[in-house]
Automatic annotation (TrEMBL):
Superkingdom: Bacteria
GO cellular component: DNA polymerase III complex
Stretches that traverse the bilayer: none
Protein name (Swiss-Prot/TrEMBL): DNA polymerase III delta subunit-like C-terminal domain-containing protein
Keyword terms, alphabetized: DNA replication, DNA-directed DNA polymerase, Nucleotidyltransferase, Transferase
Stored InterPro entries: DNA_pol3_delta-like_C, DNA_polIII_delta, P-loop_NTPase
Length: 316
């Protein structure tokens, strides 16, 4: 079991990806961790904490029974485990009862880790990041060497738009130096987008998996790229919700995944990916009702389209 913790979500995810790939724990070196069938992700929320804990323990228990090996990633963005000593001890004790070779990774956005993790002798990895003032000072000092001419607000854009990584920023500064011209905010925006750009399906997948921190970062930070395409995001979200509901209903009726694929005309890969979403049928139905309500309000002129879509994504 490992705990990865730090203040920057991008670096946290990147570090976990690198760790798994370096240790040959993913099938394909260029594949994202969350797209791998060996990876099961959970997102702890205070409201559904007990239910999620049971799901995780059941997952580990079944893997122990059949001697299957999985990578279980627990995203604790609300720091539920970090704030409750009793919960930490209880959870860790239960996980350690199982003898299989599953790898359990807990990710937390915090700088201070609960001492209980250290007492339990769980390996912890701190992912260092820098605040904006530190980054800006570091970039200014670096630029004494590179002598890049930054237009108004462009230097601040480097601080806010690039990942919180000195090596990444240093590489980008070297590329900017070679241009030998004044660098404006728009150029920084274009360069930084490669680190965060998601296609609509990937963006919605973050939302469906309740990775709200990453979802809202991309949704807000790069809204210029999707502001004319918000309706497409909304339609993809409702379509994916309906697919998940139909898959779950067919499973309840005793259909195999192969039969579901034939009935819904979707691949086995899609089925496995969608089943990773921690959404119950009741929760999906509530979201689809909300979607129809917003659609009606937009069409009747009671609510602006983009505002309605923003509110819908806040409702989950």
């Amino acid at each position: 079991m490992f705990v990865f913790y730090g203040l920057d979500n991008f670096l946290l995810n990147q570090t976990v990806n690198i760790y798994l790939k370096m240790n040959h724990l993913t099938d394909q070196p260029n594949q994202d961790v969350h797209e791998n069938d060996a990876v099961v992700s959970y997102y702890l929320e205070p409201e559904y904490f007990q239910l999620t804990m049971e799901k995780i323990l059941n997952e580990v228990s079944s893997l122990d029974l059949f001697n299957n090996k999985k990578i279980i990633i627990i995203n604790d963005y609300y720091l539920t485990l970090n704030s409750d000593l009793a919960l930490v001890e209880k959870f860790i004790t239960k996980l350690q009862q199982f003898k299989n070779d599953n790898l359990v990774i807990i990710k937390m956005l915090t700088k201070k880790l609960n001492p209980q993790f250290f007492k339990a002798k769980i390996e912890s990895i701190f992912v260092e990041s820098y605040n904006k003032e530190q980054l800006k000072k570091w970039i200014i000092n670096k630029n004494l060497e590179y002598k890049i001419k930054f237009a108004e607000n462009a230097l601040d854009a480097v601080v806010t738009m690039f990942p919180n990584s000195l090596s990444i920023i240093d590489n980008e500064l070297k590329q900017l130096q070679q241009l030998n011209q004044s660098i404006d905010v728009e150029r920084i925006r274009k360069l930084s987008s490669k680190y965060f750009a998601f296609n609509p399906y990937q963006l919605i997948n973050l939302w469906l998996h309740k990775d709200y921190v990453t979802f809202w970062f991309h949704y807000h930070s790069y809204w210029e790229k999707i502001k004319y395409d918000k309706l497409n995001l909304f339609l993809i979200a409702t379509y994916q919700l309906e697919l998940i509901r139909n898959i779950k209903l067919l499973l309840q009726d005793g259909c195999s995944e192969y039969e579901i694929g034939v009935k819904l005309n979707i691949s086995m890969l899609q089925i496995k990916s969608l089943l990773k979403c921690q959404l119950e049928i009741k929760e999906i139905n509530q979201l689809l009702v909300k979607a129809h309500e917003f659609d009606f309000k937009v069409k009747s002129g009671k609510l602006a389209k983009n505002l309605a879509i923003d509110i819908f994504f806040c409702k989950i």
